[in-house]
Amino acid sequence: MLVGYIFKQETFNFVKITSVIGLFIGVLCVTLNDNPQTSESTKFQIILLGDMLALLSALCYGIYSILLKLKVKDDSRMDMKLFFGFVGVFNIVLLWPSLIIVHYLGLEPFELPPNKEVWFVVLFNCSISFLADFLWARAMLLTSPLTVTVGLCLTIPLAMICDVVFKFKLNSPIYFFGAFLVCFSFYWINKSEQDEN
């Protein structure tokens, strides 16, 4: 929201600020509920490193969203197929050399999937990732970067529902409260955006 305000893509109002604070508290509740499988001595450092990397990733993602909205402005001004084609080309040109480097340094061996099942998982994941990115870009151009970014946090209550349905696992009350805050914040940010338009 702050990056969007700096680039004049978002406006501040009481509902948005309250909703973002509620969202932050909800995500914090879910994060505090996590229990990584590590020893106590390294637990704090691992959690802190993971949280710092997640915040850095969120900042980069927010800047990317805002700049895309700033430059494109409207859904009709961008050819999605061409855009994602260039994203693929840049990934191949810029990321493949790093894979080769880490392979030859012995940090991470590069190998093809060993069987048909793994090939299926990889190809299915590629398809779903492409669809998710395509829908994210369309939604961001049709609404706002803040609405779409907060909408991505709805994976938290969805994960909670999947835990109950597929694993028969009930999470702690703090997790439920955090998931409720995420849903509530998404609703109010959407309502505020709708009122502004």
TrEMBL record:
It is a multi-pass membrane protein. Its main location: membrane. It is found in: Membrane. The keyword Coiled coil does not apply. The chain crosses the membrane at residues 12-33, 45-70, 82-106, 118-136, 148-166, 172-189. Keywords: Membrane, Transmembrane, Transmembrane helix. Signal peptide: none annotated. GO terms for cellular component: fungal-type vacuole membrane. This is EamA domain-containing protein. It comes from Pichia californica. The lineage of its organism: Eukaryota, Fungi, Dikarya, Ascomycota, Saccharomycotina.
